[in-house]
TrEMBL record:
This is Allophanate hydrolase subunit 1. SMART domains: AHS1 (SM00796). Residues 1-25 are annotated as: Disordered. It comes from Nocardia cyriacigeorgica. One of its GO terms (molecular function) is ATP binding. The keyword Hydrolase applies.
Amino acid sequence: MTTSTGSVPHRSGPSRTAGSRTDTAAQAIRAAGDRAFLLTPRPDAVADLAADLRDRRLDGVQDVLPAAETVLVTLRSTADAEPVRRALHTLLEELAERPDSGDVSRGTSSAGEPVLIPVHYDGADLDEVARTLGLSVADVIAAHTGTVWRCAFVGFAPGFGYLRSPDDRLDVPRRAESRTAIPAGSVALAGGYSAVYPRKSPGGWQLIGRTELTMWDVDRDPPALIRAGTAVRFVDARAGR
């Protein structure tokens, strides 16, 4: 869960339990009322599970909502609960058989290609981020642009996607003190995630740059440029000059 300043969720997850795949799958499914299930897969599998659920379009499933460590599956009616539970159990068993890839960059946008986000790397915290990580500013920019990020989930504000990367070099903490106003389009890092602020708001993330793209537009379909599962590649705006 996020706060008004865009808290960074704890990225660790539940460890694998001993026992059979069936026991593990059963433990990963919890009822959330009478028309939803909360799934807790292994930590590296949240995005894959959400993508699989969307691809399979299970009868009775209304929506699939991934978070940092869980996936909420909502149902069309209470009558769908038992057949959906069985289908989820089977899917979790299959997921447990897959190797732990740790690759969070495999997701794609609805168009099938990463969303390209040009960034002016002139953020107020860029130098401090580089010092904290023991890297040069050029190395920080190269690491940020040199990988495909994937939106693990959306929170804090409409269009605010929490992006993860298989490259862990850019894992920096939030600022000790939050800012009262961060401009829309600010590109930031915190807790192993990157994000683009969709609107002017308070926030405590480390600002490394800005983009001129509009992340949230109610007149666009869909309004969010980045949704859960979307792949994103950041591009140094100076390279196009």
